Every structure is written in structure tokens, then in C-alpha cells.
Amino acid sequence: MRGGRLSSTREGAILPLIAVILALIAVWYVGAVALNAPQAREQLAEGAGLRDLAAATWSMTRPVLPAPHQIAVELAQSLFTHPVTSPRSLVYHAWVTVSASLAGLGFAFVLGLLLAIGIVHVRLLDRSLMPWVIASQTVPVLAIAPMVVVVLGNLGITGLLPKAAIAGYLAFFPITVGMVKGLRAPDPLQRDLMRTYDARPLQVFSLLRFPASLGFLFPSLRIAVTLALVGAIVAELPTGAQAGLGARLLAGSYYGQTVQIWAALFMAAAMSMLGLAAVSLIETLAARRRGGRL
Amino acid sequence: MVWAALGLIAATLARFAIADAASRMMIGTALAVAAFAIVALFLAMVGFARGEGWFARLATPTLFGLLLLWLWEMLVIGFAVPFVLLPPPSAIARAFGTHLGLLAQDFAQTYLHAVIAGYALGCGTGFLVALAIDRSPFLKRGLLPMGNLISAMPIVGIAPIMVMWFGFEWPSKAAVVVVMTFFPMLVNTTAGLAEVGAIERDLMQSYAARYGATLVKLRLPAALPHIFTALKLNSTLALIGAVVAEFFGTPILGMGFRISTEAAKMNLDLVWATITVAALAGSLSFGALAVLERAVTFWHPSFRGSS
Amino acid sequence: MTEVALLQPVMRDDLVIPEAVVSARDVSLVFDAGGQRVTALAGVDLSIAAGDFVSLIGPSGCGKTTLLRAIADLEHPTSGVLLVNGMTPAEARKRRAYGYVFQAPALYPWRNVARNVMLPLEIMGLPRAERQARAARYLGLVGLGDFARKFPWQLSGGMQQRVSIARALAFEPKLLLMDEPFGALDEITRDGLNLHLHELWRRTGMTAVFVTHSIPEAVFLSTRIMVMSARPGRVVEIIENDLPATRDLDLRETPAFLAVAHRVREALRAGHSYD
Q: Under an 8 A CB cutoff, do B161 and A258 touch?
């Protein structure tokens, strides 16, 4: 059902989506003129025409709002003109952030799965821990990021690990909640059936609960991917890290390099999309073995 | 119940014993009392976990939370963990008391200004845009995937840009919140408006009801559960957006500012106190919305059975 | 699930009929639903012999499903003696004495039809070749040999229920327990499946216990019909069905069939006023 709805909207959405994006770009250019005009007028000679004004606002070095093509150029330059290991390459910064997110995601997945299994099977855990896991989703957990980074820094732990810890901590909650839901998804008849076969607990898990949970795992993984990336980016802020997308954002905002900020922002969005696409790919592969449905 | 009471008493005693343990060589006694407290609380939780009814359901997580706090306190004091790594809960509570004025100012700056203004504006425009594009399938098909995609992006990253545009004061934080809350509301409201079944729609058609009447009498009420989903999600997102945006630059006020600067100064008790305020604000706003949701959409299947 | 200790069966000669596949003596079952005690079964006595096809019929809430679930060790009697193959239901379940067909197909949507049928065989540890042979055989028996690689949601409701019957037959139990297996199907499909089930039962010679609230279905399929009454659930009458052993759908228009159906209806009515 889910897959069907998704594909049907996707088919019909391409044309409108392109229209919306084109409109957005047009608005963006107009907005760039409007926002950058005061600054541009100072540089222009008296009596310069509207065309000169537009050209000026779209080619400033530190615009209030850079024009889309400026961001594209900056992206292309920082992606392709430097070797990927150079700190001037955006690929390098993206990898610094993404590797921390991936490490955190892996950690969150293992821990979330184990905890979900515990919660589903042990009533004490369900009653004592589950309310806190749910409640913690309403709490701005990201606020602890600076402290974790500072404290781990005091212990001499820097670099990837503090970022991965925060990314993992954020991603952990949706995975746990999703897996608990998924492992509980089998209906009473499906569970009774296992009982009539006198199936062992491990068989009930591997043949019923786990396969049933996959449909819940992927939506929560999608949320977790975004959260892990946000966590890694925010974790780069407090220490003034030298590398990573968060560091680029911060450096850009210190020096007023708006084009750099936007480029980093677009890179972060691209990484997020890449992550979501990877999840979708795994989901499709998993679904294919089940006749196209999870 | 008895075990819970005994456990709590023993836990309290153990806390005092461990504080004096270093001077009076009472480690043994303290450990014995602490061990008893753990066993008693564990038995109490096992007992409550078996029970039904709201008291047992509330008592188990409450005891568990207390146990964790107490373990934190005991371990930090017992192993003399440096204050700059992890202050004990008692110190955090003390910081809460001494800095109450400061915390209140931060709360006002971040929550009462940035969060509430941004939340209202973001949710409001998201809702209105959803209504506006409701009659245009073309726009809906274009904007929805866009909204879904942007909702999954690390939007807090726009904070430095917003600071540049709107200055260091709270409006720049509110702007981040607006962008973060707009898309979930747009997407969920549109999904909610599409929720109504064909039969209900045919019924309105048979009355020759106008678009407006169908919207007000049928589709908006049916969309409420979805709208509340967005409202609840956004309440969390708004707080995150405002706090994180403050990491990028603020005047000398605000919860995000307090957390980042005091963490750098190693005043971890104050950091934890601020985090406590943020956690309380987050869960209380979520809880308030959940109560409101229950009152407004009591007819929805997810609430009906559970009176 | 309420954990009620099963009373130890009293092994007295007058209580237990050794050759019975299922025997119940004074079985009662009380649910504790939120502090409210609901008597689902009160003093049920029955004995089902090998090769019988027994229908349990009665109004909604008469406890017929509960009785079937108790036989399958999915519910636990509060008092009385219930034996399956001379063992407690729990022992019988552990020896995989019965196959169970639920009201809904309860197929696992992530497994295709053949792998659904193989599920119990995997759990019981049969070798792979044997699993495949059995799946093919029993899918053929329910007339779905060509659908082995389809997924459950690609099948109609009637076909899904046939898969679930094949799944119950696959490990070749001597006893088949069926809980309104055709209740959710339209009447035309149901007629076809009734005929099919009747032939399956004739061919395999197994013992069947069949819960239904349809009088024609009960009369068509059964050798004996146990009529139950509601609140508290008890067996009010056992009707021996002396229709010929081999049956087809035309039988249902004969006076003999209608006479049995009439007796069942009378018994149901009596059970109702009994309340």
C-alpha cells in the first residue's frame, strides 16, 4: 500500500516539482536583488540602470543573499578544484561530518535494536524504561551537545568520537521506538500460530517478530539519518572545530562568507539526501525479496 | 509498596552515609545500605511492573528515574568524579536554586520570545499555505515532495544566515524556528485534508455543499489528527531550533547561549540546570498539546477505546 | 493472558475415555477482564472420537471459540479435565498433535505462499527437501499448486484461507482444529470451500473440530453437531448427523438435510430460551 502510493505521487510529481523549483530559483534571484541592493548601490556610480544593479547584486563577494549561480560556482570550485584530502575541499569537510554521523548511526542501530528486544521481552524494562525513551523525544536532546563535546574534550577525547556520540544519542531514540513498535506489530493470531507450533522464543523472534518489524525500521531509520547528521554538525560548533560542515558554517558566519555558508548548507542537504536515498535503496532491496512489499 | 518505601529510605540514608564515608571510615556501612536500597527498589519495580492501573504504570518509571538519579549521585560522590566532568544531581539542583533569576531570563529570551513567536508564525503560515494550495493539485504535487524533502534536511544549519539577516536578537532565532516548523505543518495539513473518505465526500456532494462548507464541516475536522501530529512534532523542533540557533551567536542571554558559554567555562552545574529547564519546557509543551489533542479529537479511534 | 493454574487431571476411569481424541469433563473457564469475571464456559462435557468431524455451533459469545482455544492450549480452563490424545492440552501442543486454522488466514505477508506452508516444517526442523515436497503436495491438495510463488496479498480471501488450511495440514497432524475459517468469506466462495474441506477430510481420515455459526455449514460438514448456548457457554445438545458419508452440495436441498438443519435450529432456540 505504502509503496504504491509513493510511486504514484512520484510519477505525477515530476513536472510540478520542476515548476516549483524553477519558481523558487526565480524568487531567489529577485530576492537577491532586493536584499543586496542597498549594499550594491554604494558601489555603483550614480544613474546606473536596473540592469547594472541586478548584475552587481548577483556578483558580490559578501552578499546578504548570494545568487543561486554563485552558490553553484562555489560548490563546484570547493568540490572539484581541490584534492579531496585538502581542507579546502568541501568533500573533505563533508566526509568528516558524515563519518561521524555514520559511526553514530551504527552505534545507535545496535543499541536501539538490543534495547527494543529487551523492552519487548522484559516487562520490567517496558514499564520502567519505555516511558523515558518516549518522553526523551519531546526534549531538545541536542542541547547537551556542547557539554558532551567539552567534557569529552577534558578527558582527552576529541575528533570523531564526541560527534559520533551525539549523533548516535540523537538517532538512538527513533530507532528504539520504531523497533519496539515493529517487534510488537504481529497480531495475536500470528503469535498464537507460533504457539500452536510450540516454537522456541528464538524462532518466534527470527521467523515472526523481526521480519514483521522491518516495515517500521525503515521509516525510523530515515528520521535517524537526518538526526545523526544534524547531531554531527551541531557537535562541531562549540569547540570551533577546524573540519566538518558545521565548522564551515561557523567559519562562514564569523567572516561573513555567505557564499561559503550556503555552499556548506547545500552540501549538508545533499548528504542528508544521499543518506535517505541509501536507506530507500536498502528498503527496496529488502522489499524485493518479499515480492515488493515490506 | 513496602519495598519502595524501604528502598527510598535506604537510598536517602546511603546518600548521607557516603558523604561522610571519607572522614569517618563508614564505607562498609554506606555500601551495605546502598546495596539494600538497590535490591529494595528493584523488588518494588518488579512488583509495580506486574500491576495494572494508573498508579502502578506511573510508579515504575518514576522509581526507575529516581533510581538512576540516585545512582548518578552516589557514583559521582563515591568515586569523587571531578566536578568538571559530571556534577552530582544535588549540585545541579543547588545551581537551579541559586541561578533561578538567570534561568528565568534565559527562558524568557529563548522560549517566550523566539520559540513562541517562531512556532506561531511557522505553524500558522504552514497551515494557511496548505489551505491556499488545497484547490491546486498541480501546486500540491510540486510542493509536497519539496516539503517532505526539506523536512528531512538539517535546517538548523540556516541559523548563521538568519543571524546575519535578522541580527543577534531573538528574531533571528524565531526565523529559524519559522523555517523549521513551516514544512511539517504544510505537509501534515495537506495530508490531513486528503484524509476524508469517498463516502463522506459523496455525502457532502449530495447536499450540494459548497467548497467552504465541505472544508469547515468535514475536511478540517477530519484533518485535525494530522494537524496535531505536526503541532506536537513542531513543539520539539521549535525548541531545538531556537537553542541551536543561539550557538551561532546571541546577545548575552538565552538558553542556547548559556549552555555553550557555561560549558566552555566548565560551569557544568549551570549547564545541567539549563538543560533541565529545556527538558521541562519541551515535555510540558508537548504534554499540553497532547491534552489539547485529546480534548479536541476525542472521537478519533486512537483515543476512543482508552477512556 | 490470564495465568490460571490448570487443575491437575484426576485420572479416574469413569472420567476419561481413553480412545477419545478430545475429551472434556465439567470444563469451566472464567475470564478476569479488568476485575470483571466473565464465565466463558460452564461445565462442558464432550468426547470426540478418532475420525469424527465435529461442529461446535452457537450464537456469538457462547464460548465455542474459547472451547476450541482451550483444546489447543491457547486458553486455560479454570476447572475440570480436558484431555487431547489422553494428554493435557499443553503436552499435546508440545507434541504438535493438532493443526489450527484461525478465523483469519494469519499468513505472514513477507513469505510467499509456499514458504508460508513450510513455516511449521521449518520450526519443527524438517529437512529442506521434505519441506518443499510437503508444501507442493498440500498446496496441490487445496488446489493452489500454481500459486506457490505468489505472496498472500496477491490472493483472494478464499485462496488465503486455503493456504492456511494447507499450512495446518502440512505437518500431518491427526487432529485439525478450525475456528470459523470461512466466516469472513462470501457465500459462493464458502460453498466451494465447504465441498473442498469435506473431500479433504474424507481422503485424510483425520479428526476435525469445526467452529461455525452457520447451520447449513455445520450440517453439511459434520458427523456430529454440538449445539452450545450463551452466557454461560455450555453444550445443550449433541446431534448425530446420519446423512450419507459422501456428500455434495445438492444434498442441501434434500428433506433429510433440512430435517437435521431443523433439529439444530430447534436446539439453538431451546438453548437461547434456556438463558
A: yes
pLDDT digits (tens, 9 = 90+) for B30-68: 777 777 777 777 787 777 777 777 777 788 888 888 888
Provide the residue range defining the domain that includes A246: 90-288
Q: Residue A73 falls within a domain, yes or no?
A: no
Q: Are residues A61 and A94 in the same domain?
A: no
Contact criterion met (CB < 8 Å) for B274 and A143: yes
Residues A121, A251, single domain; the answer is yes
Give percent above pLDDT 90 in chain B. Answer: 12
Residues of C near A (Cβ–Cβ under 8 Å) read 69, 72-74, 93-94, 96, 98-100, 102-104, 106, 108-112, 119-120, 122-124, 150-151, 153-154
Predicted local confidence at residue C171, as pLDDT: 85
User: Contact A195/C124, CB-based, under 8 Å?
Assistant: no
Same domain, A149 and A239: yes
Residue C48 identity:
I
Helical residues (DSSP H) of chain C, grouped into ranges: 64-71, 89-94, 113-123, 128-141, 157-170, 187-204, 215-221, 255-274
Q: In this structure, are A25 and A147 located in the same domain?
A: no
pLDDT digit string, tens, across residues A252-275: 888 878 888 888 888 898 899 999
Is the domain of A138 the same as that of A276?
yes
**Cβ–Cβ gap C74/A291 under 8 Å:** no
What is the domain class of C22-97+174-274 according to CATH?
A: alpha beta
Please judge whether B157 and A137 are an interchain contact, meaning their C-beta atoms are less than 8 angstroms apart.
Answer: no
In a domain, A74, yes or no: no
Q: Which of C106, C124, C153 sits opposite A189 (nearest CB)?
A: C106
Contacts of A203 in chain C (CB under 8 A): 123
Question: 3-state DSSP call for residue A293?
Answer: coil
Residues in chain A within 8 Å Cβ distance of C110: 211-212, 214, 290, 293-294
Q: What is the DSSP letter of A209?
A: I
Quote the CA–CA distance of B193 and B137 in Å, as a whole number: 12
Q: What is the mean pLDDT of the segment spanning C110-121? A: 91
Same-domain pairing of A222 and A94: yes
Asked if A198 reaches chain C (Cβ–Cβ under 8 Å), the answer is yes
Query: What are B54-107's pLDDT values in tens digits?
Result: 777 788 888 888 888 888 887 887 777 787 778 888 888 888 888 888 888 888
User: What residue spans define the domains of chain C?
Assistant: 22-97+174-274, 107-172
Query: What is the rounded distance in angstroms from the CA atom of residue B116 to the CA atom of residue A94?
Result: 33
Which amino acid is located at B33 in the chain? V
pLDDT digits (tens, 9 = 90+) for C153-189: 889 888 999 899 999 988 888 899 999 988 888 888 8
Chain A neighbors of B244, CB-CB under 8 A: 142-143, 234
- Whether A83 maps to a domain, the answer reads no
A179 domain residue, yes or no: yes
pLDDT of residue B304: 59
A148 lies in the same domain as A181: yes
Q: Do A293 and C123 touch (CB under 8 A)?
A: no
Contact criterion met (CB < 8 Å) for B60 and A127:
yes
How many pairs of residues across A and C have Cβ atoms under 8 Å apart?
60
Whether residue B141 and residue A147 make contact (CB cut-off 8 A), yes or no, is no
Which residues of B are less than 8 Å from A227 in CB distance?
none
Residue C275 has pLDDT above 50, yes or no: no
Over pLDDT 90: what percentage of chain C? 24
CB contact under 8 A, A151 and B85: yes
Q: How many domains does chain A have?
A: 2
**Same domain for A272 and A169:** yes
C154 compared with B18, residue with greater pLDDT: C154
**Per-residue pLDDT tens digits for B129-140:** 998 888 888 888
Nearest to B260 among A15, A135, A146 (CB): A146
